[in-house]
Write a structure and sequence with these properties.
The protein is mainly α and 442 residues long. It folds into 2 domains: 190 residues, no CATH class; 242 residues, no CATH class. It is built from 17 helices and 9 strands. The strands form 4 sheets. A 3-stranded antiparallel β-sheet has the order 4-3-5, covered by helices on one side. The two termini are 47 Å apart.
Amino acid sequence: MTPWNTMKLRADQTGDRGLPMPLWLQGALETAQAAIISALVVLAPIVAVWATAGFQNSAFDVLARLGGQAWLLIHGVPLELAASGSGTAGNAGSGMLTLIPLGLTVVPFLLAWRAGRRLARASYTDQLWQALLGSWVVYSAFGAATGFVCGTADVAINPWYAMLIPLIPFALGMVIGARREAGSWSRLIGVDAVAWISRTSQHSRWAGSYLASAAKAGVVALAAALALSCVLLAVDLFIHWNLVIAVYEALDAGAVGGAAVTIAQLGFLPNLAVFALAWVSGSGFAMGVGSQVGPLGTATGPLPSIPVFAAIPSGSLDYGFVALVVPVLAGVLAGWWFLREGENHFDEWLAIKVHARWFTATVSTLALGALVGVVSGLLAAALAWLAGGSAGLGRLTDIGPDPLWTAVWLAAEVGIGVVIGYAAGPWLERQQQVAEETELAR
């Protein structure tokens, strides 16, 4: 990274340089650009539907407020849907809209990632905070202004939520982008972690290496389980494709309306991937209050006419329990990965203290399975919390997996897989070595 404390503005295309731009101002301009682009991305499908007379109320101010509300929603800001009418029927339409389309949240995240890289190139290590502070203030002001303008009698927006919550994905994207450009955290924040670790004791370094490798193995297990869940989700959509098409035809929304529905569903595709992860874990997920969708059976009430809902497995599944093998396989992969990492210092410490190898190997492997399972379970709980939420309408105030039960089921299954994978790892290594020697002999 080549650091600069200011960014020079070109006066023209000849290469002459004009006045320097302060870092806080450059951060503010990068942020304004990201906010406007993300707003245009959200508005594009809304304008397309409006242009084809897809809205009952086609007033421009209604369209603008709808776009602003959608922009806040993709940033995670909850929207309070007010009840229309009175009595039970009116109350059925009230509630908080907290179901975030994580696929669309990627848009401001990537824009922030780009801005963070550009700001890191324009800053010295000890001056990056100026650019970040300017950018975050502007983005917070943009969110607060959007919440103030777009609130209506039907959709209430908490101004503090609108001011602060959009900063979470945006600031995260900027920090990750700046870290990517800097190449290391030490160059980004001016703290040399390697030098700090080298001053600690050998036992502390061994413990840190063991815990760090176990945490990485937990990430490996979760990533593998999520990838396999996505494969099963794709297979499920393929099997039920005729039902999905039938719902599209029943909607009869036209080309533009159908495209808008498809874009909205793609926005929730990461949510569906997490739902699939909860399904294969055995904990399942809810599609409304009192409903349950899981590998051992599905019990749901009436669902909205959304095409992807037609692919939900229904009824009693005779072989649904086979899906529980997926997290176990992911744990096997994580256990094998940890063996290849070669950082099982807890096992080495036990072997020094206790000379019964059968005991130390068993205890260290079980401890490893529990630790990696807990890490993957906590990460799965975070994903379940992000992916689920409330649609704010009737029974649909409970959508998605339960974070606690998803964590418990996945942690137990991954832990079992880690024990198997770590125990079978030496045999797998020998098989791989034999295969490589046979290939070389040919």
